[in-house]
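INTERNAL AUDIT FORM
Audit reference: QA-55
Scope: verify that the stored structure record matches its stored sequence.
Auditor: D.O.
Record contents follow.
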Amino acid sequence: MKKSLLLVVVMLVAALVALPACGVNGEDNNGDENSVVLPAELKGEYPDGRYRGSFFDSGDYEVAVQFHIEDGILTNLSYRHLYWRGDDYLNPESEDNVFVFTAEDLAAMAIQHEQLLEYLEGKPVSAIGDLFTPEIAADDIDVWSAATIRSAKVISALRDALNRGVYRHP
């Protein structure tokens, strides 16, 4: 397993080193970076439109997000699903909740998660990485609520959306 992973890493590094030296048809481009053809997503550019992505864990649908990109800017960010161990953060009073946390705690954690998306509103796509430090975006981050851990799930759902591409064009 380790040898396979090492081989994949070596091949990926070799491909990345060779990529700038190749033009459209694999010809030498004499160092002209403008002739390298890369998909927009690899350049950090994403087409305008609506994006949807999810984070799954142990077969459970935990975080699902939806957002728009307009000229490289994130807008209209929202959660489609926000669950953990059978509790729906977006509907803390639901009778279907198993109540690992109280309804009051679920509502408080939902607010923290909403703050993560509010932070990204109007920012470039590259700001998603800011959520690795969730205390800059959400109030009252603490160890008990594990909001720091869940910010990584939100980041994964956002990245999943970017990897999937445009869900609906404008």
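Auditor finding: record pair retrieved intact. Strands lie at 49-57, 60-70, 73-84, 87-88.
Action required: none
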